[in-house]
Amino acid sequence: MNYEGLIIRPPSEAYSLLLQVTVGCSHNRCTFCPTYKDKPFRIKSFAEIVTDIDEASRYSRAQRVFLCDGDALIIPQERLIEILLEIKTKMPQVERIATYANAKSILKKTPEQLQDLHRHGLSMIYLGIESGNNEVLQAIQKGGDFDKIVSAGKRAKVAGFTLSVAVLLGIGGNERSIPHALDTAKILSAIDPDFVGALTLMVVPETPLHEELLQGRFSLPNTFGLLHELELMIAHSHFTSCFFTANHASNYLPIRARLPHEKEKVLKLIRSVIAQRDKTVLRHETMRAL
Ligand code: SF4
Asked: Which residue has the least CA distance to atom 3 on ligand 1?
């Protein structure tokens, strides 16, 4: 497989074949994100992609494929359909194809186009929301506001996609910690995704956010402030049926809960850790990672 640069994938795609169809991220402006800063965005040529699919079809029995890099949904519709057909033809055992997306790339597709992609085998979308607070979204240059992100999330769900969204504890800083948590609960409730992954912000050197941190224009809530955000997000959100996780390596307190079924149980745990200021149950700082 011809991979260019660092390849990342959601934790739940650990056993998927990683097929790089774009290089980098079409947005690439989020102030906290170091992932693709060294990669000018481009869509790989069809010939490059077919070469990789051919190679994978010879050695891989993977039943899942994840389209990398940051935002494969930005690929023009006809080309994306061709890629999906190529996977289906040459790797008939594949049962699920997933990709990252952002609000802009989802909304660039009409509802009918999204349905067509779904019909052709693209079945899961990972959408980075980060926050539901408009001031935070603007400050981090997410490229979308509350309404736009809700429209995108709903459009994906209506088209039939399994939707997994990511939110970021701490991204509002101390200044906007509570509005960030409450508005994030609101946006999650409005979208009602199938999966939520809450990650905890780690400020990475050489990002614009790190510069803000150095200049004193941004500060991170402490560990228990971050857990309070998690508590507020869970307490104030309302889901039909959602698997909510905060077990990424960046998180202090690993959480996995079916919501709403396990809401009270998980809130009880978070509240007890906060009340007792019990650091023994938390992931040690040195064990945290992106
Ligand atoms: S959209 Fe995602 S990958 Fe692109 S810059 Fe923002 S966080 Fe990074």
From this structure: 70
pTM of the predicted structure, to 2 decimals: 0.94
- Whether pLDDT at 36 is above 90: no
Domains belonging to the chain, first-starting first, are 11-287 (3.20.20.70)
Q: For a pocket test of ligand 1, which of 9, 29, 35 has the largest count of ligand atoms closer than 8 A to its C-beta?
A: 35
Provide residues with CB under 6 Å of ligand 1. Answer: 25, 27-30, 33, 35-36, 70, 102, 128
Band (pLDDT 50/70/90 cuts) for residue 56 is very high
Cα angle for residues 191, 197, 199 (degrees, 5° grid): 125
pLDDT in tens, 87-97: 999 999 999 99
| Ligand 1 atom with minimal separation from the 29 CA | 5
User: Would you place residue 241 in the very low, low, confident or very high pLDDT band (cuts 50, 70, 90)?
Assistant: very high
Question: How far, in Å, is the centroid of ligand 1 from the Cα of 134?
Answer: 17
Q: Enter the tokens of residue 194.
A: 């199938």
Q: By alpha-carbon position, which residue is closest to atom 8 of ligand 1?
A: 33
